[in-house]
Amino acid sequence: MTTTREQKRAYRHRAAQQMRAWRRLPCERCHTIKAAREFAHLAPTSVTGRGRGQMRRYQDIRRHPEAYALLCGTCHLHLDLGVVTWARVGAAPWV
């Protein structure tokens, strides 16, 4: 039987693999696959800031996929600055 420490390590490993897989998807706005993708907030959640507490972020994305968008850095910046407004139509592609 595995120990709690081993289970946590395995969970973190699976979560990291899932995040890497999600980041290989194209930007939801401009559809580029050349730039690194980031999860942008479309609606407020309990987790704020870029990349803060990676495991908390992963769990929050899993719980509230409608509150996040997978965007390239440029689209994320434009969304944050209010240069563009954007809303997803349909379900998140990683769900």
Report on the architecture of this protein:
With 95 residues, the chain is of the alpha+beta class. The chain has one domain. The protein contains 3 helices and 2 strands; from the N terminus they run αβαβα. It is globular, with a radius of gyration of 15 Å. The mean pLDDT is 81.
So what's the overall shape?
A: globular
Instruction: Give the biggest sheet.
Output: 2 strands, antiparallel
Return residue spans where pLDDT drops below 50 for at least 5 consecutive residues: none
The figure for the number of domains is: 1
Describe the structure using short key phrases.
single chain, alpha+beta, 95 residues
Helix and strand arrangement:
Elements: H1 4-22, E1 37-41, H2 54-63, E2 68-72, H3 73-81
Antiparallel strand pairs: 1-2
Task: Briefly summarize what is shown.
Helices cover 40% and strands 11% of the residues. The longest helix is centred in the first third of the chain and has 19 residues, at 4-22.
